[in-house]
Structures are given as C-alpha cells and as structure tokens.
C-alpha cells in the first residue's frame, strides 16, 4: 500500500511537471509567433507617432495641434475597416484547420481585391470631402490650413494601409510573423529618413512629412507582395487563376456586417475621445495629440495575442455533437469557454497570463513620455504640464488592454451569437463613454477628465 501510494504521488507530480512544462512550451510558441507580430497593429499609429515627434521638434505648435484632427480621420478609416484583416485571418485559419491549403491563394486574392477597392474609394471620398471631414473632426480656424495640407497627402497612402493589413493577416494565419516584421521595419526606417530629409534638409514642414509617410507605406506593400509571390502556387494570390465569382465574394464576406460594426464602434470610441480633446482648445489638443501618438501604438502591443487566439484555438473547439467535460452537448453551451476542449482552455489561460504581462508592461512604458520625459514629444513648455497630468489614466487603460484583446479574439472565433454579443458590448461601451465625457465636460475636468 505504501509503495502504491508513493507511485500514485509520483505519477501526480510527473503530471504536474509535465503540465507546467507544457504551458511553458505553449507560452514560448505564442511569444515566438506574437513578438514579431507586435509590429503589425502598431505600424500605422507608429507612423503617426514618428510624424508627431518630427512635427513637434521641427514645426510650430499649430502644426502639432493640426495632427490631432487629421490623425483622427485617418485612424477612423484604418480601424473601421480593420474587419477585413479579421475576416482574412479567420478564413485562412479555417481553411488550414480543414487542411485545405489549396484554398489559401484564392482567399487572399479575394481579400486583396476588396482591400484595394475600399482603399481607392476612401482616397476619392476624402479628397472630395476633406474640409467637411476636418470640420467634423473638430479642426479650428487656426489649424485648418495645416491640417488640410497634411490630410490631402497622407490619405494617398490609405490603399497601402489596408493592403498591408490584409496581407499581414494572411501571413499571420499561416503562422508567419517574421515577414510582416521585415515590412514594418522597412517602412519605419524609410519614414524616419524621409521625415528627416523633408524637415531638416528641404524645409517642407508638415506637407513633406506627409509625403515621406506615403512613400514608406507603399514600400511595406512591396515587401509583403514580394513574399506572397514567392509562395507555392496554391498559396499565392498572384498565381494565374480566374477572378473570384460573386458567390465566392459573398461567402468570403458573410460576416462583414457584424465585424464591421465591431470595428466601427471601437474606432468611434477612440474618435469620441479625440474630438473631446480637440474641443478643449489648442494647448490641450496639442498635449493630447503628443501623448496619444505614443499611447496608441502601446495600446495595440497585445493585439498579436488576439491573433494568436484566432490562429491557435480553432483546432481545439469541440464539434457541435461532441460532449463537454460535464457531459453536456456543445450545442447547449453558454460560453465560448465551454466550447473549448480541456487543452484549449489551458492554452487560453496561457494567453490570458501573457495578455496581463503585455498590458502592464505597456502601461509602465507610457510613463516615460508622459511623466519622466515629456520633452521627447514637444518643446513647448506650456504643453508639458498638461502631458504629465495624463500619466495615470494612460497607465491604467493600457494595463487592462491585453486581457481585453484576448477575450475579443475568443469571441471572434466563436458562433454568430458570440460575435453578436461582442457587437452589443461595443455598443454599450460607446454609450457609457459618451456619458462619461458629458460628465467630464459638465464638471470641467478638462483633458484629464477626457482621458
């Protein structure tokens, strides 16, 4: 009996050790996948951050304040159509889970055609409606001229932004996160070099900075397209094949309505905050623009963990007829958690732990430009105290961002009911946000209240 008890204890310890080792192996796998992919969601905000820093150091405060409304418009356009990248990664991940790798090239072709079409329409509409859009975004008369010059040029890169997002999502679905990293590095290097030349050498100011950003973003598209062209024929969207039929496009876009609603409401949340800051005047708007340009890229650093959930968890979702651990049918499950196998639930725990670490780390990093060294963002001594007041809310918001991103990823790979729940939660969020902004305005809490 003693030996038997010892053996049982040994088996239990071995099982625990294996479980810890298994979790650590999954954590390493997710980090190897996710760390290079951090560059993807922060690419567009990072371009805006680089532009903001160069404008803050090389131009006047009016030019810096003008980036707030223009950045808001560009962000709305980029993030409102972020659902295209979500659909792309979902469709390709599903094809791979079914071992239908031959469908990848056709799916990518459909995604790229939609991305190019949407990007072209956005450029046309923005050129026609630039002044009304800037007015709606809260641009005042002092900053309108500079904002208009920047927006008309910067929007030319919008097709590249959406094509980049879709191309990168397809590569992530195939568990390739290094190629997107190469594209982003190329873009950032060219943007920094271009901004330096435009401001320091040619003296073109805010317009020159916008042109440098456009060139840099199309360079990233070139890197990504080159990678896709080197893939096997079945996987390459550039292989010779018929154009997709209307039925194929309808199947690809089946979830567009719900996913577009989720992306749009999330983008609207960010827009409401930026509009509220712009309404406070030039100095508060400049302070908000300066810190927001750094905060936004940090906010998206946990985003690859959401992508990891979309890519790695589908094989661990039970089939409708498969019973759960408690013996009930998956059809009767009440949560996405119950639909996952035990192994899938353990992977999700690993993802959540990593999300918490990513979020807290990003929160601590934002203290550098907001509290310890706000001079990095602007030379205007009148703006620096306002930036410092935003350190605490910026820290708190970033700390919870990681867990939120993973929870959203789990809902995205769930049933239509899960997607609809996420849409409703975003609707509730936008309502509560506007209530909070109204209260902040009523009690004169200023920029800190907005944050």
Shape: globular
Largest sheet: none
Structural class: mainly alpha
Indicate the proportion of strand residues.
under 5%
Mean pLDDT across the residues is: 83
Task: Write down the secondary-structure element order.
Answer: HHHHHHHHHHHHHHHHHHHHHH
Oligomeric state of the chains in view: single chain
- List how many beta strands DSSP finds: 0
Report the span from N to C terminus.
65 Å
Helix percentage range: over 70%
Report the uncertain regions: 1-18
Q: How many DSSP helices?
A: 22
Radius of gyration: 23 Å
Chart the SSEs and their pairings:
Blueprint: H1 2-37, H2 39-58, H3 61-80, H4 83-97, H5 104-128, H6 130-136, H7 144-154, H8 158-173, H9 178-201, H10 205-229, H11 246-252, H12 256-278, H13 282-299, H14 303-312, H15 336-339, H16 342-365, H17 367-372, H18 384-388, H19 391-399, H20 401-412, H21 416-442, H22 446-450
Helix pairs in contact: 1-14, 1-16, 2-3, 2-9, 2-10, 2-13, 3-7, 3-12, 3-13, 4-5, 4-8, 4-12, 5-8, 6-7, 7-10, 8-10, 9-10, 12-21, 14-20, 16-19, 16-20
């Amino acid at each position: 009996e003693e030996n038997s008890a010892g053996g049982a204890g040994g088996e239990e310890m071995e099982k625990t050790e294996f479980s810890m080792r298994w979790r650590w192996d999954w954590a390493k796998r997710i980090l190897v996948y996710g760390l290079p992919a951090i560059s993807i969601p922060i690419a567009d905000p990072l371009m805006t951050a680089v532009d903001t820093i160069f404008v803050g150091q090389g131009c006047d405060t009016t030019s810096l304040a003008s980036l707030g409304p223009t950045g808001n418009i560009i962000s709305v356009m980029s993030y409102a159509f972020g659902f295209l990248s979500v659909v792309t990664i979902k469709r390709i991940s599903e094809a791979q889970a079914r071992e239908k790798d031959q469908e990848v090239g056709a799916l990518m072709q459909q995604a790229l055609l939609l991305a190019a079409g949407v990007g072209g329409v956005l450029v046309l509409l923005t050129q026609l409606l630039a002044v009304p859009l800037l007015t709606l975004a809260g641009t005042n008369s002092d900053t309108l001229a500079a904002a208009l010059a920047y927006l008309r040029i910067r929007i030319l890169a919008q097709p590249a932004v959406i094509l980049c997002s879709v191309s990168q999502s397809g590569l992530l679905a195939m568990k390739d996160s290094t190629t997107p990293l190469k594209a982003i590095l190329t873009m950032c290097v060219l943007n920094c070099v271009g901004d330096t030349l435009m401001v320091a050498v040619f003296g073109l100011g805010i317009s020159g900075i916008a042109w440098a950003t456009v060139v840099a973003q199309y360079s990233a598209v070139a890197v990504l397209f080159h990678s896709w062209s080197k893939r096997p024929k079945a996987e390459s969207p550039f292989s010779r094949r018929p154009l997709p039929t209307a039925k194929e496009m309808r199947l690809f876009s089946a979830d567009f309505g719900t996913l577009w609603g989720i992306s749009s409401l999330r983008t609207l949340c960010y827009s409401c905050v930026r509009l509220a800051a712009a309404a406070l005047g030039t100095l508060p708007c400049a302070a908000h623009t300066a810190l927001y340009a750094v905060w936004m890229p940090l906010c998206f650093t946990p985003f690859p963990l959401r992508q990891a959930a979309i890519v790695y968890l589908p094989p661990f979702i039970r089939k409708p007829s498969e019973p759960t651990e408690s013996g009930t049918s998956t059809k009767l499950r009440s949560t996405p958690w119950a639909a996952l196998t035990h192994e899938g639930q353990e992977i999700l725990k690993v993802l959540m732990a990593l999300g918490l670490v990513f979020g807290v780390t990003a929160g601590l990093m934002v203290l550098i430009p907001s509290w310890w060294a706000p001079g990095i963002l602007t030379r205007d001594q009148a703006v620096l105290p306002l930036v410092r007041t935003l350190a605490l809310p910026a820290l708190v918001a970033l700390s919870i961002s990681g867990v939120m991103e993973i929870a959203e990823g789990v809902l995205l790979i769930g049933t239509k009911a899960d997607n609809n729940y996420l849409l409703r939660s975003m609707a509730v969020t936008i309502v509560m946000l506007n209530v909070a902004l109204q209260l902040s305005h009523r009690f004169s809490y200023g920029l800190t209240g907005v944050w």
